[in-house]
Amino acid sequence: MTGGRVASMYRPRTVGEAVEMLAGARASGAEVALLSGGTDLVPALRSGERSADAVVGLRRVHELRVRGAGADSLTVGAGVTYTDLVGWSLSPGLARTARVVGSVQVRNTGTVGGALGSARPAGDLLTFLTAADAEVLTVSPRGPARLPLADFLAVGPDPAAIVTAVRLARPGGPQTYLKTGGRQAAFPAFVSCAIVMDRMSQRMTCAIGGVGGLPVRMGEAERAAIAEVDWASGTASAAAIRRFADLVAEAAARIDPALPVGPRESAEYRWHAAGVLAGRGFARCLASPEPTAWSGP
Amino acid sequence: MTTGPGPGPVDGEAAAEEETYRLYVDGFPRTVSGAWVGDSLLTVLRDVLGVTTVKDGCEQGRCGACSVLLDGRLAAACTVLAADADGARVLTVAGLGTVGLARAVRAMFLAEGAVQCGFCTPGFVVAVTDLLTRRPDAGEDELREALAGNLCRCTGYGRILAAIRAVQRDRALADPDDGVVGSGGGLARPGEGVVGSDGPAGAGP
């Protein structure tokens, strides 16, 4: 058929086996691709955009399909699909994000680990996980490791490691994810925005995707918003919401390096959209409890 | 959770470039050998196994023409690595069966004029059957969202949605707000009773 190389297929059943097979194949000098759902990798192999000598398929590794809740944190296995997350009441933000990924076909197939392994900057999940201060859990021949998502994305996936899970704090308030772009089922978001509020610790975080190489936290706008929220009632003035939106748009415009500009992708529109989505998301969080936003501590 | 490990004959080992594996396609075990390890399920179904009931549209997971049920879950076959699907059950439109919901969906696609050039139809029938199995009384918004992964360039989707509503009426599961009482009466339960006639069951010409 078309394409080339990919000469061997590994089908581990445990994380240990997967790490071993990955190491073995790499030791022989092979370029190895990790395969989770396949929504990114398989079309890329077909088109020749990506190539590899060997593929390690992770769909039989049942350990990776677990999601669980501890006292303070949620752990989502790398093999969990978007469809698995859509109805997850423990994380309204993840559920909301998963619900607007691609199409039914993509949500049934694509996984959390795939989003991290592919690390496509426009990936919906990356924006939400950036706002949620998530950690990435990996296993390599050197053993298990965990590191902040921002560090993981900055360096890129360790070629000897397998992403096993992401970990994020249990929600302490409303969370939302909004995006704009072409048809959702076929195209990644143009600009995306995630907001995570924690009413107990009086924190709020906001990440914007689509204005830089990776999703970016909006530190200055976050601090301004936190100062303007009346945390006792969980409300803020309309002026505060507008200021937050303006600060996000201004911060987006300062990101360096800016994304390349195309005939239909003006930088000004991205910045404007970032502000609009941020203001809308903030207002939506403040207006909660909505059934989709937060169901108690 | 459906991973369908299956018999996994080459479990835990790397095999040669043209390895052999097995897929259960429309109920029949099919042995694949001689395919490139990097081939998608779509390529293997069509070019190796001759299963042309899946259509090759975009090869990017965007058009839905190659929609199949992979271990019971709707997937675009072009985004699935065939060698990784070793042991999996694959249902194309041909394997959905000729009774019950699958028959009703096909009958209403014909009766309502939901087929024009027909290229998208096998994928649509798989996706619609999957949707109505999970959500028999899905409303308009849910239908449109759930079918966003299937493109049709002829019909404008109006006739396809009409066919789905006809199936829902026919199976007496229509949204009560729809204001239409199905031919089977309002009390039948999912999976019970007879699927309606092949005719347009109360629909106009």
Tell me what you see in this structure.
The complex is a heterodimer of chains A (297) and B (205). Chain A has 297 residues and is an alpha+beta fold. Chain A folds into three domains: 8-57, 2-Layer Sandwich (Uridine Diphospho-n-acetylenolpyruvylglucosamine Reductase, domain 2), CATH 3.30.43; 63-169, Uridine Diphospho-n-acetylenolpyruvylglucosamine Reductase, domain 3, CATH 3.30.465; 175-287, 2-Layer Sandwich (Enolase-like, domain 1). Chain A is built from eleven helices and twelve strands. In chain A, β4 and β5 form a beta hairpin. The N and C termini of chain A lie far apart (54 Å). The model of chain A is unreliable at 290-297 (pLDDT under 50). Chain B has helices at residues 41-48, 100-111, 121-134, 140-146, 158-170; strands at 21-25, 28-32, 67-70, 73-76, 89-91. Chain B is built from five helices and five strands, in the order ββαβββαααα. Chain B has two domains: 21-95, Ubiquitin-like (UB roll); 100-178, Orthogonal Bundle (DNA polymerase, domain 1), CATH 1.10.150. The N and C termini of chain B lie far apart (44 Å). In chain B, a hairpin with a 2-residue loop joins β3 and β4 (73-76). Chain B has a five-stranded mixed sheet with strand order 2-1-5-3-4, sandwiched between helices. Chain B is elongated. At the A-B interface, β1, α1, α2, β3 and α5 of A face β4 and α3 of B.
Which terms summarize this structure?
heterodimer, A: 297 residues, alpha+beta, Uridine Diphospho-n-acetylenolpyruvylglucosamine Reductase, domain 2, Uridine Diphospho-n-acetylenolpyruvylglucosamine Reductase, domain 3, Enolase-like, domain 1, 3 domains, five-stranded antiparallel sheet, four-stranded antiparallel sheet, 11 helices, 12 strands, 21% strand, globular, B: 205 residues, Ubiquitin-like (UB roll), DNA polymerase, domain 1, 2 domains, five-stranded mixed sheet, 5 strands, elongated, disordered N terminus, disordered C terminus
